[in-house]
């Protein structure tokens, strides 16, 4: 009986301490809704009473600190292609070797790290996670929703062309539902001087580079509307720079019209262009200006999504 009374008194004292410490969570209506108090009266070594928050359980249990330390280990290993031994790695992240080893073995179970010849190295699962980020940053991947938006708003096929050295390559396309439509096969190239995507990129390059590219590639004359002189092309590029979008009024192919606007990197340099294209019987010259404004707006949005920046003068 005496032992029962002693145990009961101990548990009662623990409960009183628990309620006194955690009183704000039960008396404050702003806090009480965020927690689910769960009481445990344990036996043996665990005679404590615990509160388990709904949204802060990891923090209270120390898991957050462990995650942060594990990520620090991964970051340091990523800096060393040949890996690090345990003592050096622990020193760099300011952890005890025993703590670092415990975290590393946990990461090793899921293949985030591997252990070879006495050194810890990045594992294949870390590569998979990093590759997912690269896929998310891939321009053609990120452009897909913007291409769909352009197609839906204009009713014509939307394209993405990217600069590759001194060439423009079509890398993505969203086709319109029209039976008669313009198609630019992904992987095909676009001429710089007589396509909307080409002129949109040229217009925002430094003039010496533009002239050098014209001298290198020449003026492609694919239709009777293609530019035939460097001066006429440069005047067209100046107009494009001012309005922010370019027209291909049957310069590349008879019976086809195209409107394009450039996409920029973080240094305000053109990396490619978005365009919409279709038959001239549907895209009138009056409609081209409207499409130009739509294309420019969506190109600006894609540029921001890529952490790029439009030139301040446009």
Please give a quick description of this structure:
49% of the residues lie in helices and 17% in strands. The protein is α+β, with helices and mostly antiparallel strands.
Structure in words:
The chain has 314 residues and is α+β, with helices and mostly antiparallel strands. The protein folds into three domains: 2-61, no CATH class; 71-129, Winged helix-like DNA-binding domain superfamily/Winged helix DNA-binding domain (Arc Repressor Mutant, subunit A); 139-305, 2-Layer Sandwich (Beta-Lactamase), CATH 3.30.450.40. Helices cover 49% and strands 17% of the residues. The protein is built from 13 helices and ten strands. The protein has helices spanning 2-21, 23-27, 29-32, 57-61, 63-78, 86-92, 97-109, 124-137, 139-154, 196-202, 207-217, 230-243, 285-305; strands spanning 35-36, 52-53, 113-116, 119-122, 157-164, 167-174, 189-190, 246-249, 256-264, 270-279. The protein has a six-stranded antiparallel β-sheet, with helices on both faces. It has a two-stranded antiparallel sheet with strand order 1-2. The chain has a two-stranded antiparallel ribbon with strand order 3-4. Strand 9 (256-264) and strand 10 (270-279) form a beta hairpin. Helix 5 (63-78) packs across helix 7 (97-109) and helix 9 packs antiparallel against helix 13 (285-305). The longest helix has 21 residues, at 285-305.
